[in-house]
Amino acid sequence: MCGIVGYIGKRQAEPILMDCLSRLEYRGYDSSGIAVRQNDNSNNISVYKNAVRVEALKEKSPHLNGNTGIAHTRWATHGQPSLLNAHPHLDCSGRFAVVHNGIITNYQELKQQLIIEGHDIISETDTEVIPHLIEKYYKGNLEEAVKLAITVLKGSYAIVVLCKDEPKLVVAKMGSPMVIGISDCEKFIASDTPAIISYTNKVIYLEDGDVGVITENSIVITKNGEEIRREEKQVHMCKADIQKNGYVHFMIKEIHEQPRVIRDTIVDNALLTTKLTIGKDVQSLSIIACGTSYYAGLIGEYVIEELLGIPTNVSFGSEVNHRRMIFPNEVIVITQSGETADVLTSMKTMQKAGVKTLAITNVPGSTASRISDRTIYTKAGPEVSVAATKSFIAQLIALYQLTLLHPSMSPGLREQLAAELNTLPAKAEKLFDLEPRIMECARYLTQCTDVFFIGRGINYPVALEGSLKLKEIAYIHAEGYAAGELKHGPLALLCAGVPVIAIAAQDSNYEAMVTSIKEAKARGAYVIALADENDKTIDDSVDVVFKVPHTHFLLSPVLHTIVLQLLAYFTAKLRGCPIDFPRNLAKSVTVE
Ligand code: F6R
User: Fold this and answer.
1) CA of 254 relative to ligand 1 center, distance in Å
2) Does the annotation mark 187 as catalytic?
3) 290 is catalytic
4) Torsion of CA 117, 121, 125, 130, to 10 degrees
5) Average pLDDT over every residue of 234-252
6) Which one-letter DSSP state was computed for residue 26?
7) 591 lines ligand 1 (CB under 6 A)
8) Would strands 544-548 and 330-335 be described as parallel, antiparallel, or unpaired?
9) 381 lines ligand 1 (CB under 6 A)
């Protein structure tokens, strides 16, 4: 998704902005651009932008001499990636430059009106109306002009505005995230904290409706015309967290971090008080999430129903706002980034209906953490690769712990599962011994156009997650199915050599899974199974088997998912895909 950065201070803005932009690359983008207020008598705004990666922008951009500037990575929503559609956008006179994250939903009518009034609008974007509105309202005071311009905007925005006539940056936020980094005699602006973490870890998170006027020495924030104070926060993140540290890709680094992530999430959540667990008397629960987090939610549903007997349903954040939904009193929201627009909008809808929200998120200070009633933090650390891996595993651990804490849990089973949870880091570590064989298997997948993942019970969502990982990073069409559903349609697609990846956990579904495997084999499928280390019989029924350390079946999704992450990773690597930044995708999906 679009990334925003801004700088004002005494240093040259250009190298700082480029550096900050490169730290936002993980969000996914197709164009980039920069605007700097020139350090000469003209104070003109110089802009360089195109449908290029940040590396190319750095190489090709002429030196922009100035101490105040803004920059952007664009993920196309309105209009294809092109020079004209890239940000920053300017008004007719080139006096104002704007970078924007979000979507202006009424831009068509604003654009028509501005054209009638003589404005020359040259891009297909929703954003370009903003500098023209500022131009229209400017009477010598940038802050006032921005405030007037945003009164006519509908939709979501985080904007940073640069003006040739005023040595300051003006920012405004509604619905899209924005953070201001504070340092002596210089200030940083970003849509995402990792962008500025090399420069400062003292930040202010803006709230919806805030307008900020930022100079090198001051930050003045107003909301509804009143000046307000926003608390300064310390961010606990260091540069090493967002570097590859010797790994070829962030994704494999993050997969390898998972034993540590499980350990840290367990230790941290051991401090969870009953205040943070599911309410004692709840009759039913909902879980809201998107993508991989949604699959964590499906596993959570299974665990909560199995262990607590509380009816639970899981909904996509993107669906909640488009249908009538009957919410229970308590809703769990799962979001790695804490910024997914579909999830945040659902949270707001639910909160208006009086529902209490419990967020499980990986990003302290994220919008979800700030607007939820209660928050549990997963301890995955910054996840840079677009494909979620360690954050998913951390979400599972948080969901297990949340469930184990519930007063209705039988103490014996709680103790057994808590002890078993503690064995998972070592068992996850052992999975890395499988890498050479997983890579061999990946070689087979690279030749395939379709892959099926099948699971049953608690491992059905693992099949969905395995297929999502393969699709998004290896660009191979994959489907995840509840194994029993194969015979209800998809079997028609099975023919000789088509890979079927079957998760054959040691649970009450085992025999049924073996039957599904036989059905697939009978049609010539190439079956790759994931099975328990104690399973001595499956080898004869399948083409390849990966044995995972034995654990309680409710915890088995953790180990199975890691194997499937590695399979997707090696397949993508062998196919030469841009693993960390898959095409068209973004890490933080900040538009609905
Ligand atoms: C897939 C992936 C996405 C995210 C989804 C929700 O690998 O990363 O499907 O899981 O966009 O993101 P969060 O969890 O940040 O709300």
Assistant:
1) 15
2) no
3) no
4) -50
5) 85
6) G
7) no
8) unpaired
9) no
Contacts of 455 (CB under 8 A, 6+ apart): 461, 462, 463, 464, 480, 482, 483, 502, 503, 505, 560
Going by the DSSP 8-state scheme, the letter that residue 193 receives in this structure is G
pLDDT in tens, 455-478: 999 999 999 999 999 999 999 999
Is residue 457 within 8 A of residue 586, CB to CB? The reply is: no
State which of 1, 288, 293, 392 you would mutate to test the pocket of ligand 1, scoring each by most atoms of that ligand within 8 A of its C-beta: 293
Which residues are bridge partners to 159 per DSSP?
100, 172
pLDDT of residue 273: 56
**What integer is the mean pLDDT of 413-419?**
94
Residue 1 Cβ < 6 Å to ligand 1: no
Selecting among 136, 253, 390, 587, the annotated active-site residue is 587
pLDDT band at 422 (very low <50, low <70, confident <90, very high): very high
Whether residue 20 has pLDDT greater than 80: yes
371 lines ligand 1 (CB under 6 A): no
Whole-model pTM: value is 0.84
pLDDT band at 243 (very low <50, low <70, confident <90, very high): confident
Tell me, in angstroms, the distance from the centre of ligand 1 to residue 222's CA: 33
Span from the CA of 294 to the centroid of ligand 1 (angstroms)? 8
- Contact (CB, 8 A) for 528 and 542: yes
Q: Ligand 1 center to residue 585 CA distance, Å?
A: 10
Extended strands (E) in 27-178: 31-37, 45-50, 68-74, 89-90, 96-101, 157-163, 166-174
Looking at the DSSP bridge assignments, the partners of residue 234 are 202
In the numeric block, the tokens 């967002």 are attached to: 242
Which residue's CA is minimally distant from atom 16 of ligand 1? 335
Going by alpha carbons, the residue nearest to atom 4 of ligand 1 is 291
Question: pLDDT, tens digit, for every residue of 517-535?
Answer: 999 999 999 999 999 999 9
What b/e string do you get for 345-355 counting C-beta neighbours within 10 Å, with b at 16 or more? bbbbebeeeeb
Asked if residue 377 lies in contact with residue 268, where contact means CB atoms within 8 angstroms, the answer is yes
Q: What pLDDT score was predicted for residue 237? A: 74
Q: What share of the chain is helix, strand, coil (3-state, %, to 5)?
A: 40, 25, 35
Within 10 angstroms of residue 156's Cβ, the number of other Cβ atoms is 22
For 190, 332, 339, the CA distances from 368, given in Å and listed in that order, are 17, 11, 6
Give the separation between CA 23 and CA 53, rounded to whole angstroms: 12
Match 């607590």 to its residue by tokens: 308
Q: Which candidate, 381, 346, 343, 345, places its Cα nearest to that of 362?
A: 381
Q: Which residues contact 202 (CB under 8 A, 6 or more apart)?
A: 181, 182, 183, 232, 233, 234, 235
Q: Is 336 in the pocket of ligand 1 (CB under 6 A)?
A: yes
